[in-house]
Structures are given as C-alpha cells and as structure tokens.
Specification:
Blueprint: H1 11-18, H2 28-38, E1 44-46, H3 51-59, H4 62-76, H5 80-113, E2 118-123, E3 126-131, E4 140-144, E5 152-155, E6 161-164, E7 175-177, E8 199-200, E9 205-208, E10 210-217, H6 223-228, E11 231-233, H7 240-267, H8 274-286, H9 293-309, E12 327-329, H10 335-339, E13 341-346, E14 353-364, E15 367-370, H11 380-391, E16 396-398, E17 404-406, H12 410-426, E18 435-440, E19 451-457, E20 460-467, H13 469-474, E21 476-482, E22 488-492, H14 495-510, E23 514-522, H15 531-534, E24 538-550, H16 554-563, E25 567-572, H17 575-584, E26 593-595, E27 610-614, H18 629-643, E28 651-656, E29 670-674, H19 683-688, E30 691-693, H20 702-741, H21 750-769, H22 791-817, H23 825-845, H24 858-877, H25 889-916, H26 926-939
Parallel strand pairs: 1-11, 13-25, 13-28, 21-24, 25-27, 26-27, 28-29, 29-30
Antiparallel strand pairs: 2-3, 2-4, 4-10, 5-8, 5-10, 6-7, 6-9, 12-30, 14-15, 14-24, 16-17, 18-19, 19-20, 20-23, 21-22, 23-24
Helix pairs in contact: 3-5, 4-5, 4-8, 5-9, 5-21, 7-8, 7-9, 7-20, 8-21, 9-20, 9-21, 11-12, 16-20, 20-21, 20-22, 20-23, 21-23, 21-24, 22-23, 22-25, 23-24, 23-25
C-alpha cells in the first residue's frame, strides 16, 4: 500500500514500518519477495528499436523497389521461375537485413543499460554494489558526493547531504537534506515535494555529504516516473558514420543505375536477348547492396561495443558483479574519434598501477639489500614483523553499518602485501609471539607522524615505531647490526651512518618505491602516556622498500602504444616518483620532457612524444584552503594545451579516474573515465564520459582504455574492408556482364546475381565484422580508419574488380576454344564465380597472408563452406565432363596468387622501412637517469 507521510514520521518509525534494520538491511530472500511485490525499479529505461518500423522502412528503399520491378518484368516476360527465385531471394535478404539490424540495435541497447546508475546497498549486513533497478522498498542505501539517488526514500542518518533536484522538483538550487521530522499545522495541510527536507527523490544527484537513506518508493511509485514517465537513456539511435555511408551509398546506386542503362543499350547491338540482359542488369543494380551498408555499419559498431567490454578473464566475474563489461562505450558517435586517437593525456600514474605491493629491497645494518625471491634472508622477517606490529592497531574500526570490518590503511596494506609475498615465496609465515599493550596512530597530533606500539615479547616490553625515514631517524641515536647468529647488536649512530642510510633510502624512493622505516627500544612503561620519552634514543632497525606492481597488461599496452608512436602526457603531482615508475614499465625514457608548473611552456603532442606535466598537489597547503584545486589543474592543462602544438596530432583522449578531474575531460576529443568495482562512479564523471572502463580491481585502467581504442580501430578497419570488398564485387559483376555480351561469353541468371550480391556478399561482410584485431592494429595508418575515398584505394579496387571479372567472364570463352566436346560451361562459370568470391572476400577481410594466421575463425569457416556448397551445386546442376571441373579453380588460383604476391610485397616494404628507421626504446638504467638529472640541475639550478 502506497504511503505519502514518510516525511512526517521519525526515522526509527519509518524503519520499523518498513521492517528493515539500519545496520543489516534486507536479506536476499526478503529483497526478492519485495521486488516481486513492488516490481522492478524502472526509473531509468532504454529506448527500444521497433523491428516493425524498420521492416516498413526497408520495403520502401531503392533496392527493394528495384527488386520488385525486376520480379514483375520477369513475370511479364514469362520468366516465372526467375520471378519465383527473385521473390524468394527478396524475402531471404529482407529477413537477414532486418534480423541483423535489430540484433545490432539490441547490442547497443545492452551497452546503454551499463550506463544506468549504480548504488551502494546494505544486504545481509554487507555493503554491495547493485544497479538502481535492483533496489527495492526497505533497502538501506549509502550515499556520498557524486552518487545518484536510485529511488524515493527517507534519510535515516544524521549527516547533512546536499543534492540537486533540478528537473525533478521545482528546486533549481542546491537543496540540503538531513534526518528530521517535518511538522505541519493542525489542519494537516500537504507539504509540497520541494519542501520535504528529509526525503530524497530518484534521479537527484548528491553534490556533497554522506549518509544513509531507506527506500520508500520504487518504479512507478517514484515522483520522477509519475511526473514524466522516468529518465530515458539514449541507445545510440543515430550515428554520424551512417550519414557519410548514406552519401556513399547514393553515389554507388546512381553509378550502378547508369551502368544498367549503358549495358542494356549495348545489348541492342549484340545477339543477346534484350529481356535477359535487362533482367540481369536490374538484378545487378539491386545486388550492389549499397542500401545495405548502413545495416552493416550498425553491425560493426555493435560488435566493437560488445567486444570492447568483454572481459578477458571471465573467472573474475561473479553473480553479484555489477559491471559485466570491461569498457562501456556510452556514446557510439565518438567511435570514429576513438579510433583516430593517437595522443593520450592521463590524469595520474595510478592508471598504470594494480594496487598490489611487492617487496623491492630492504635495509638492515645500514646497508641496502635487494631481496631475491628465490632466496631467503633470516633478518628480513624481523623487519616485517616489527613493521606489522606498529600498524596492527589500525586494522579494526567501526563501519557506518555498526559492524567491525577490516579497513586497512595504505601503509598497512603495503606492509601486509609485502609480508604475504615473503610467505608465498618462502612457504613460511611470520610468527607473532608477542602481544600489543598500547598503540598510538601516526595520524594523531602527538605522535609526530609515527605509528607507535608497545609490545610484550617474552620478558621484555618494547616500544616500536614505524613511518617515514626522516621521522624515524630523528628518534634514533643507535642503529642495529646483525651479529651473524640471528641476533642484533647496537652501535652508536654516526653522521656517516646517518648519511649512508638517508642516501640509500633516497635512491629507492627516487625509483618510485615507498620506504617505511622502523626503530625500537626497551620500555619501562606499559602504556604510551610518556610518548615523547619513548620516541627518543631509539635504535634504528632498518626499512623496507615496497614498490607497486603495474596493472595486468599495462606493460604490454605500453609496448603497443610505443610501437604505434602514440603521444603520451601524464599529469603528475610527484614528478620524481612518476618518472622512475614510468621508466620501469617502459613508458618514459631519457627523451621524456618535464613541463614545470606555471612555466608557461606549451605541451607538444607530436607522434611518439612523452611528457610529464607538473601539477600542484591536490592537497598542497601552499594553494590555500579557499582555492579550488581542481580548477587549478584544469587551468594548467588548458594553458599548456593552448600554448603547445597539440592540434598537430590526431584525436586526443583524456583519461581520468578522480571526480576532481571531471573538468579535465572537456579538454579532450575523447573522454575516458576509469570506474571502480568497489563504489559507484560519480555522476559528474559519468555525465561527461564517452567511454567508461572498469578495471579488474579499484586500480589501473590504462590497459582497458587502450583496448577500447584498439576495438574502435578494429571496427572502422573492418568497415573499411567491407566497403572495399563491396566495391570490388560490384566492379567484377559489371566486367563479367560485359564479357558475357561477347561471342562465346555467358551471362549469369538474375537469381545467380542476386544470390551472389544479396546473400553471399552479405555473408562475406558479416564475416568481416567479426575479424579479430591483429596485434598491430594500433599502427594502422589513418587511411584504414574510414571509407574508401582516396585515389590509391579507388584505383586498387577498380583493378582488383576488373581482374576478378575478366578471369571469370573470359573463362567460358577460353573453354569454348578448347577441343573439348560435351562440356556445359555454365556450371564451371558459376563455380568459378563463387570460388573467386571466396578468395577475394578472405583476402580483403584478413590482415596479412591467408597462410600465416594461427587462429580459427568460425564465421569465415561457415562462409567458405557456404561458398563451396554453392560452387558444387552449380556443377551438379549443369553437368560437365569431370575433368573440366578443374577449370573452375583457375580464376580463384590466379586471384589468390596475385593477392599473396601483393601482400608479400607490402610486408617486405614495411620491413625495409623498419630496418631503415628502427624504433628502439632506450633502456635507461637508474645510474644514467641520476646522472642526467644531475646534469639538468647543473644547467638550470633555479629549476
């Protein structure tokens, strides 16, 4: 039963009425029951494509009208068999076209559903990410800045939340919501929706603040659905690419109609039947498939959108995973720009990282030791044990749900992962034969930035600290040196030892590692009340250098964009760290340019360039508390883009993951946002994004972004191949028909032409749609990223079509000149036509030689099988002397030989160019980098 008085009741009363627990939420069984009772939360919906409307549009296009006219003329001239074949092919072609188009539209609509809002919901006492449509009445939803409210509900937490209700209520300004009770007068007059300060409405956006709400209305009961029927999500109804395709199709159709008139006129001067030639030429005009190319474009775009989102490792997926795709192309209109991208601007180096830490080196006895994963060091567990003890008190805290959960800080996560790595490599565990007596976090004001813990180890009580090398060394007057028997002895800390420790730590930090040091001393106290006394005169034990490993496939993607000569610019707040981390994964080299913040120098996105743009830290106190730091980053990037020659490159893609960088997206031709599997994507980012990528964990995203570019290039390259193939096929049919008018030549029947053009050509380009992207797809030149329009492409297409048509058209003439009796060349002619089509389609659609592919392509295999069946049926339909059947292989063999020779020559030319100008990434060692840095500092001491 619908209620409308939730705003008049206490939050506890609301929860009691809805029978839900604020700290546990609903369980799964109860949630399913309520979903059946209240229905699916369909606040957001995707516009669907009607197959009926598209079918009516297909019946009125030029190809269908011409086909109907051809069938009518065939019936008038007593060609009833031909008319029946034409009608059957009309029906088959229409079914294929409509079915393929609707299927492609469904794929695009499915991608649009990925753009639906996602929210954090408490189910069974656990916080889960669910789509908005899965939310039901009684669910407890956690909200914070950037989230979208999934349904109407009552705030049940004390925090204040600022939301935007523009378009939902009459409130056009920011509205503040909080847990309160609205009092009315004695008459109990109705409170308008815009004045209900404790109610949130579906579709509104949280601007800042955080808190919890309980869902009170979903679907048709929400305010937005009752007012305007819900919120429509676009499903890419129109594509800019199709407009160019339509223009190209019209030109092709006019050319084919003109050719029909010319060839029909030539038939008047030959012994051929005018009726036969007219029917064939009309069928040829229909078989040009020009009107079908738009459908093919939708198929190619749909395949690209689908494959861009496919996850390579399906084992990572689970039933509760919200984001089923790795990349969601939210706007297919940007597909061409995405394919033309050759410059990347990255918001930070976190896009390359996996979030997993690995032990790089450690220091003990004032000496650095690189840890060998295959070996074992008896002193390393001691350092890890001390570091873990200092952060053990941070493991547990109370969550918003009121339950104890593990919430590791970044420092604890780094130490724990390093310890786990040591355990995996050695097969041993770090023993904790002590107990913690007291703990003070490094975040408190009295701790000096050090995590301090008192531990009791057997008879002794030790005070142990951990933190940055500078803070720990400030507390130490001694340092520990191993005694060779598994123990330590203390020596006085000298200036030379202090300098050596600082230098070794600085070198590791310069390479991008996190250096965490520890020290200890015996304590006469069992509490940390005298913290300042305990943090003095300590013995320095050593430190661990922990490096963050790159994300999966990140290094491989860096190699691919390097080979493709992509320009890359990284916005950095820690230049030294990012420079060496980027060098470690192969992104940067000695030619990497650093643009200092505020220098006024412009950004150059020339092919192959690598640049680090220094940015002020988002948390830099020098900017002041009243400065919008995201505006500083935006203005800085805008300034360097305008001052440089960024416009000389192709399309520029901006990739970011932080909501503070939302404005940066507006500076790129393509806007790519890295989402997260652990929290909803902030609405300001989602609203601006053209492509949303979802890494396997909460880190990374660079590999998925490059993969999206690769899939977009594959789609346009496949469309390029399809258009070129159709051009060649049309030219070959014209040449073949001209050869058929000659004495001794053969003219194919209208049904054979329609089967070739409507069915088999459609099957060929459909097979091309699913061709996998080669490893070097990113290196394809720009002329492979669009429709054929260049002179070189047109000349090649005309030549290939002419050779194909001449070989098949002159084959009957050549056979008729041979002294062979009892041979019907019709079957040989048709078989040669189909086999040659197989060779041409495979050669155009495949990248490189047909004999060098290592994978099995199911779609192409089915296409080849269908072509062979058609060729065999033609030979059976028109019996010939058995050995003359081999003549059908001559055109296809010659075509295959010519295609392979052409591809071999192109490959040899490309190899020769690489040998003349080889691209080698400089393997810059750490020592060389340090020397270059010192030289630069000497040249420009102010900088």
């Amino acid at each position: 039963m619908e209620r409308n008085d939730w705003h008049l009741r206490e939050s506890k009363a609301v929860l009691h009425s809805l029978k839900t627990d604020m700290y546990k939420g609903l369980d799964r069984s109860e949630a399913r029951k309520r979903s059946r009772r209240h229905g699916v939360n369909r606040v957001w919906y995707v516009g669907r494509t009607s197959a009926k409307e598209y079918a009516l549009a297909c019946l009125s296009d030029l190809a269908t009208v011409l086909l109907v006219i051809t069938a009518v003329f065939a019936a008038i001239f007593e060609e009833s068999t031909a008319a029946a074949y034409i009608c059957a092919l009309l029906a088959i072609g229409a079914v294929l076209r409509i079915g393929a188009y609707v299927k492609a539209r469904r794929v695009l609509e499915k991608a649009a559903e990925e753009s639906m809002p996602v929210c954090s919901v408490l189910r069974d006492g656990k916080l889960q990410l669910l789509r908005a449509e899965a939310v039901t009445v009684g669910d407890i939803v956690f909200l914070e800045g950037g989230d979208v409210v999934p349904g109407d509900g009552r705030i049940v937490s004390g925090e204040e939340i600022a939301v935007s209700e523009r378009g939902i209520t009459n409130n056009k300004k920011t509205v503040h919501k909080f847990d309160t009770v609205i009092r009315t007068d004695e008459k109990g007059s109705e409170v308008p929706a815009e004045y209900r300060s404790n109610i949130l409405y579906a579709g509104s956006t949280v601007l800042w603040g955080q808190g919890r709400m309980v869902i009170t209305a979903v679907g048709e009961e929400t305010l937005i659905v009752r007012k305007q029927g819900g919120i429509r999500i676009g499903s890419m109804e129109t594509l800019p690419l199709t407009e160019r395709l339509n223009r190209w199709c019209k030109g092709s159709s006019l050319f084919m109609l003109a050719a029909v008139m010319v060839i029909t006129g030539l038939a008047l001067f030959t012994a051929r039947s005018f009726t036969q030639v007219f029917l064939v030429t009309m069928a040829m005009a229909v078989a040009s498939m020009s009107e079908y190319l738009t459908t093919i474009a939708y198929i190619l775009v749909a395949v690209a959108v689908r494959d861009a989102g496919l996850k390579k490792n399906k084992k990572d997926e689970s039933e509760t995973r919200v984001h089923a795709k790795a990349a969601v192309i939210t706007d297919s209109a940007v597909l061409e720009k995405l394919a033309g991208t050759d410059a990347l601007i990255l918001s930070d180096m976190e896009l390359f990282k996996s979030g997993e830490m690995s032990l790089h080196a450690y220091n003990i006895g004032a000496e650095n030791k690189h840890w060998n994963k295959d070996g074992e060091d008896e002193y390393l567990p001691v350092i890890l044990r001390l570091l873990l003890s200092t952060v053990s008190g941070q493991q547990m805290h109370q969550s918003l749900a009121g339950t104890a959960i593990t919430a590791m800080s970044d420092k604890y996560r780094q130490i724990q992962q390093a310890a786990d790595q040591w355990t995996r490599c050695t097969g041993k565990t770090i023993e904790y034969d002590f107990r913690s007596l007291d703990h003070v976090s490094g975040k408190t004001g009295i701790s000096g930035g050090l995590d301090t813990v008192l531990v009791q180890d057997r008879e002794d009580v030790w005070a142990v600290v951990s933190g940055g090398i500078k803070e720990v060394m400030y507390c130490c007057t001694e340092y520990a040196l191993e005694d060779g028997e598994g123990g330590f002895r203390s020596l006085p800390m000298t200036d030379e030892v202090r300098r050596r420790i600082f230098t070794s730590a600085a070198e590791l930090a310069y390479m991008g590692a996190s250096v965490i040091a520890c020290a200890r001393k015996k304590s006469p106290y069992t509490t940390l009340n005298r913290l300042s006394v305990l943090q003095s005169g300590m013995c320095f034990m050593g430190f661990a250098a922990i490096a963050e490993s790159p994300a999966t496939d990140a290094v491989e993607m860096v190699r691919r964009i390097t080979e493709a000569n992509f320009a890359v610019a990284v916005l950095s707040e820690d230049t030294e760290h990012d420079l060496y981390y980027g060098h470690d994964i192969g992104l940067f080299d000695k030619n990497t340019k650093i643009l200092p913040f505020g220098s006024g120098e412009g950004l150059s996105l020339t092919p192959g360039s690598r640049t680090i743009v220094q940015m002020p830290s988002v948390y830099s106190p020098s900017l002041g508390s009243n400065v919008n730091r995201s505006d500083i980053r935006y203005k800085c990037l805008k300034s360097v883009l305008q001052s440089g020659n960024a416009d000389k490159a192709g399309k520029t893609a901006v990739v970011c993951r932080n909501v503070l960088d939302a404005r940066l997206l507006t500076l790129g031709d393509v806007k790519i946002v890295a989402g997260s599997a652990t929290r909803p994507l902030p609405q300001p980012l989602k609203a601006r994004a053209d492509v949303v990528i979802y890494p396997k964990n909460r880190h990374g995203g660079f590999a998925e972004a490059v993969e999206a570019v690769s899939e977009a290039r594959r789609a346009l390259s496949n469309l390029w191949n399809a258009a070129v193939y159709l051009t060649i096929s049309q030219i070959s049919r014209l040449v073949m028909l001209l050869c058929g008018i000659l004495p001794g030549g053969l003219i194919p029947s209208p049904s054979a032409v329609l089967l070739w053009g409507l069915i088999l050509d459609f099957a060929a380009v459909l097979a091309m749609s699913f061709v996998k992207a080669p490893a070097d797809i990113l290196t394809f030149p720009d002329n492979r990223m669009g429709l054929p329009g260049g002179k070189r492409t047109i000349v090649k297409a005309l030549a290939a079509g002419g050779i194909w048509g001449l070989l098949c058209g002159l084959l009957p003439v050549g056979i008729s000149l041979l002294p062979i009796d009892g041979t019907d060349t019709t079957g040989i002619f048709l078989a040669a036509m189909f086999l040659s089509q197989t060779v041409m389609a495979c050669s155009v659609g495949q990248y490189g030689s047909l004999f060098r592919h290592r994978y099995f392509h199911t779609t192409y295999a089915l296409f080849v099988l269908a072509e062979i069946c058609c060729a065999w049926a033609s030979l059976l339909m028109y019996p010939t002397v058995w050995y003359t059947c081999f003549f059908a292989l001559i055109p296809s063999a010659i075509l295959l030989l010519l295609m392979e020779i052409g591809k071999a020559a192109e490959s040899r030319k490309k190899t020769a160019g690489e040998e003349e100008n080889p691209f080698r990434a400089d393997d810059l060692q750490t020592e060389e980098a340090l020397e270059n840095t010192e030289e630069n500092a000497e040249e420009d001491p102010e900088e």
